[in-house]
Please model this.
Amino acid sequence: MAAGRPGRRGRFDGNMENAMTRPTATGRRSAAARLAGACLLAGGVAVALYVVGRVHTPDYNFSLLGQVGLGAVTLKSTLATIAVGMAALNVLLALWMYRKLPVVTSPPRQVRLAHRTVGFALFALTVPIAVHCLIAYGVQLTSTRVTVHSVAGCFFYGAFAAKVLLVQSKRLPGWALPVAGGTLALLVGVLWYTSALWYYNGYRLPGL
Ligand code: HEM
Model:
């Protein structure tokens, strides 16, 4: 019998328990395999970036779109702030898709498209920032703030890769995408808090 169609056997051999439970068990196993694959991908990307950032020798004069020194810090903080705004917008769009917003209308088709477009634009916006971070500083563990920022930066790209993988997967548990998306939004917030807010707040961080 074909492995993917266990229900048929149940119908013909009279074993109704097989017919009703085996497809669910198979689906659960493949969903678990996809979730495990996504976690491995996230961990693999994060560890790879961490190792690259640790072995790399910082080049503090590396420029970001022609800006160096304080100019680069200001530009990066502005871009990171835009990224936080986009992440918040995408959380709202996701809540609308899941009908968790107190809006009267059901989500039009464009909401899904807008969520994907904003998500990829947000990702694209973070790339030059992270490239500057990685080349200018690498992964640094000099203080709690810098450690949290560096590790969150590495994990952000792992979480993004996992989210893209999960979006392509079918038959996932309902919580998988909200958890992946929520983690991404949270990481953008942590990255902003430990860098741009610190800069805007006179190189001090509330709470750290
Ligand atoms: C692989 C990922 C990343 C690593 C390893 C990393 C690492 C770092 C490090 C070590 C610093 C210097 C902190 C200090 O000494 O004060 C820094 C600064 C900063 N990072 Fe990141 N970061 C990453 C990704 C990101 C992302 C995705 C964003 C924004 C969404 C971001 C935004 C900033 C900003 C705004 C600053 C302050 C400006 C500056 O010092 O140049 N970083 N990063």
Remarks:
- The chain has seven helices and no strands.
